[in-house]
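hey so i finally got around to running the thing on that chain from the lab meeting. sorry it took forever, my laptop kept dying and i had to restart like 3 times. anyway pasting the input first so we r on the same page abt which one it is
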Amino acid sequence: MKKELTSIRNGTILRMVRDTRPIRKWLVLSSFLSMGIIACSIATPELLGKLIDQLYAWLKTDRSTSLTEGLIPGLLLLFGVFCANAGITYGNHYLLNNVVSRFYTAGLRIRMSDKLQRLPVSYMDRTKAGEIIEKMQEDVSTMGNSIHGIIEILITGFLQILAIAVFMFIKSWLLALAVLAVMPLSLWLSSKLAALSEKSWQGAFEYFGKMYSAVEESYTNFPATKAFNLEDHIQQHHDKINAEHQEVARKANFLQYIVQPVIVFTNALAYILIALLGGWLIVYRSVPVGTVVTVILFAKQLSAPLERIASGFGELQMVKASAKRVYDVLDTEEEARPTAELQGKTEGNIRFEHVDFSYSADKPLIEDLCIDVKKGQNVAIVGPTGAGKTTIVNLLMRFYDIQGGRILIDGQDVAALSRDSTRDIFGMVLQDTWLFNGTVAENVAYGKPDATREEIIDACDRAYCDHFIRTLPQGYDTEIGEDTVTISAGQKQLLTIARALLANKQLLILDEATSNVDTRTEILIQKAMDQLMKGRTCFVIAHRLSTIVDSDLILVLNHGRIVEQGTHQELLDKKGFYYEIYTSQYAI
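ok and heres what got predicted. didnt touch it at all, straight out
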């Protein structure tokens, strides 16, 4: 019990309660309604005790007086108390369910969404999308659905126990001691069982996140699943995770719901004890029957909040497991957010000075990298898989921060600049195309939302995609999306190139921009790129070396280091690492 109260006072549950500040006025109103429920609960045994005393006194007399006239006022008052209790309880539950939980849950999801916007790209790289969705959906729902239960435990339950205990001592201190003697055992058992269920719930939610990820991946990769006949494999993988989740959840549910039967059993023992003791007091100590009945009814009422608290402790473990996962996201360290802006007109001079970087501390990737790129140069980056080509782009775009050295743009250290300021000067065309659900025109204008239709058409014309767009059912107003089947992969790439052309940024990054197009389209795009690159600093990552033979500078990377640099012909003449890569592609 002490451990559970400490957890509530110092841990996750207290933080949940603190997070209810925006709805504090509604909680205050709920607390007042809870006081009314407690008052009705205490008044009921007292009124019943008085009615029983009146009935007992009438039975001991000659019964000449009317029993009905004596009991009717008390019965009407008792009926009024029951009605008031029902009405206040309904109002309190309606308030908590339809006001408190809704706004509390919505607030948490908004905070998580805002937090994810401020987290580094590395967090998204190491966290599956299904797990994030599961936390925002299931875990937040669990917290929102249970916050009113926590309030009921902390306010109604404990206050009701305190009030009932006081009134029992007023009626009969001996019977009150007999009732309260069993209460520590009940709370001790509930706290122990609840503590056991917490670890099980944490495991259950972890498997729940894995299930979300498995389902998300199965639908995202649906074409590949069909192509390789992996339906049975995907089903087996899902069944395995589901079975593991079911086993852990079964244990967690058992531990949570066994608490209440245990408390009911211990309370039943207390109920029998005071019934026997009450009978002895009536016979040998002349204690009024109404007093004994009142205390027995109080004892019966005392079991209800005890059972709620015991059951609540079990539920709290599930809520704590969910809350910890949500707060893990909210407490994740955010990336540094400098606010300085690039000064002056961007020329496009970029310099890497002794840059060190690794995705994990035990696996160095880039060490002592030095690059000096002048304004307007077309720089190609080549090398084997894992050499660090895309990593250089990630560092330029500030998706990751370097561990050593400096990256300068026009002499300004990017570490001191805002990420928005740095990224605003880059245009990008990536190997993995990304289109959202919208029209062709909206997708092309994504980098320049205020672009006119004429500007959009001009960009598409220079990217050699105007022709196929006009063959679509609604032309530029045709609805497409990331998973559309109306256009090919090469056509998607052309649209992203048109998007970069329209954005018209000072620096350009092309990461395998022509990898998804045929040879004829590649030639057309290369011409458009040559025009686009004029006067701009460009970084081109390519595996097909035919696309970068005219580059001003070719950087050859291997194991995170520049092993060679120069023009295409200079590198061929050296007959070094670049020569090996080139001849391996075109030797035949």
